[in-house]
Amino acid sequence: MILFVHGVPDTPFLWGPLVKALGLKPDQWMAPALPGFGCPVPPGFTRTKDAYADWLIAQMEAVGQPVNIVGHDWGALLTLRACSLRPDLVESWCVTNAVIDSKYSGHRMARMWATPLLGELVMTGMRDETKLQAALVESGMPPAIAAHEAPLVDKTMRQSILKLYRSARGLRISGDWEDDLADLPAKGQLYWGENDPFVGLSVAQRFAKRWDAPLHVEHGAGHWACAEHPGSFALVLKEFWATKRMM
């Protein structure tokens, strides 16, 4: 089973082009929506980084067999956390355009979202769907995906984003989230858009070197490389999945 985990401000719709490029059948994959992202928030769910990590582990457990997990953006961070805590649930992992790295101080928008009052002010500017869609496209999101996602950035998602980023101090993630990466399953892969304006290529290179993970750089692509170049990403994944697990 292949488990896809989206990021912020996305929904599972992000994975449509890649699933098509991979030629997957419905029973071969799943892409659950993070609580609050195009779906309701369960009662009592705190929407912190640890709550989302626990949620992802529950999704992995529900599959009933080790998964091949692919995560983008916050989905990548949650993937790394879940895989490091429960390597027994993992056949392989692949993350794209985000990694856990205490030397990375977060992009400008992340820092603003993490700041009380300023974050709320920024969110008021995200209420206009037309302007938000244009901003997402300008940031590198494929137009067709931006057209679908912008209307879904409602009050629930905006509040979820603020809570999540504040729990992570604006992506200044360290401590056990980073230390526990020593327990990551050996079979892993990084896929990165060369021109990511949010998480630079140097971050990926540093992670790949430290944790001995192969890195594929998609030249000319940005933060949403996984959706910009689904055919290329599909080829990388197929080759990666076909390799024997390293011990």
| Outline type | globular
Low-confidence parts lasting 5 or more residues at pLDDT below 50?
none
Largest sheet: 6 strands, parallel
Q: In angstroms, what separates the terminal alpha carbons? A: 21 Å
Question: Beta-strand percentage?
Answer: 5-15%
- Provide the structure class: alpha/beta
Estimated helix fraction: 40-55%
* Strand order in the sheet with the most strands: 2-1-3-4-5-6
Query: From the structure provided, what is the oligomeric state, counting identical versus distinct chains?
Result: single chain
Radius of gyration: 17 Å
Number of strands: 6
How many DSSP helices? 12
Element string (H = helix, E = strand): EHEHEHEHHHHHHEHEHH
Average of per-residue pLDDT values: 96
Structure commentary:
The protein is an alpha/beta fold and 247 residues long. It is built from 12 helices and 6 strands. The protein has helices at residues 16-22, 49-63, 74-85, 108-113, 118-124, 129-138, 143-149, 155-167, 176-179, 201-211, 225-228, 230-242, and strands spanning 2-5, 29-30, 67-72, 90-96, 188-193, 215-218. Strands 2-1-3-4-5-6 form a 6-stranded parallel sheet, sandwiched between helices. Helix 6 packs antiparallel against helix 7 (143-149). The longest helix is centred in the first third of the chain and has 15 residues, at 49-63. The mean pLDDT is 96.
